[in-house]
Specification:
Elements: E1 7-13, H1 19-32, E2 36-41, E3 58-63, H2 74-84, E4 92-97, H3 109-124, E5 130-133, E6 137-139, H4 148-165, E7 174-176, H5 180-196, E8 198-199, E9 206-207
Length: 221
């Protein structure tokens, strides 16, 4: 897979300080697979400096939900609505989430993914090639960024999850329930999807994702 032909934009919006680790991990893995990767922190980058997606064959967006009744934070939704919605047929798209308020993933990951997909469809009007809840980090340590009142609510909720699942939860420390094995699998699958490209409706040749014309027959894609 050539770096010159496949470019991926990894964007993320981090509420509590752990999504950046996923973005960094995915970026490094995708580069190891031969992709040219740019990584952008939407929180620390002014909206006026957010990159356009024209030059990328693949786009990954990772965020948390901030509050238990939402599914993504505002900047993630804004980036998706401004730059990604019209491109679902031209590029490989991956939407991912990791957030302590998405703790239901520990009880039923399949149902959690289904609900995440429904929220994406309702908000963005399409379903991306990849979407998944990657598991939460429950940080109850002194360094946590979760507010005190929210921390109390979250602890009470997690206690019932611990009883139902048998998971050992440290209520004064950090609990990392992110699915790192699945994250690696997603990177492999994402790279494979990019490599496959699209089939030209005129001659049937495989055309690179994002290409405007078929190199074999010149047909406009």
């Amino acid at each position: 897979m050539s770096k010159l032909n496949h470019k991926v934009l990894v964007t993320f919006s981090d509420n509590y300080g752990y999504i950046n680790e996923i973005a960094d991990n995915m970026s490094r893995k995708l580069m190891d697979l031969g992709l040219n990767v740019d990584t952008v922190d939407l929180e620390r980058t002014k909206q006026s400096r957010w990159p356009t997606t024209n030059d990328y064959n693949g786009i990954i967006l990772i965020s948390g939900q901030k509050k238990m009744w939402t599914f993504w934070n505002k900047k993630a939704k804004r980036f998706a609505s401004l730059y990604i919605n019209p491109l679902e047929k031209e590029k490989v798209i991956g939407f991912f989430r990791s957030d302590p308020w998405a703790y239901q993933n520990l009880l039923d990951p399949v149902k959690t993914k289904e609900k995440f997909g429904k929220n994406i469809l309702k908000s963005c009007n399409f379903i991306p090639d990849f979407y998944e809840d990657l598991g939460p980090v429950l940080d109850f340590s002194r360094k946590t960024k979760i507010k005190y009142d929210d921390r109390k609510i979250l602890k009470d909720s997690i206690k019932s999850v611990g009883k139902k699942t048998g998971l050992e939860i440290e209520y004064k420390g950090l609990n990392d329930f992110r699915n790192w094995n699945r994250i690696e699998e997603i990177c492999n699958e994402f790279a494979e999807q990019l490599q496959k490209g699209n089939s030209c409706p005129s001659c049937g040749s495989i055309v690179q994702k994002g290409a405007g014309f078929c190199a074999s027959c010149g047909n406009k894609m």
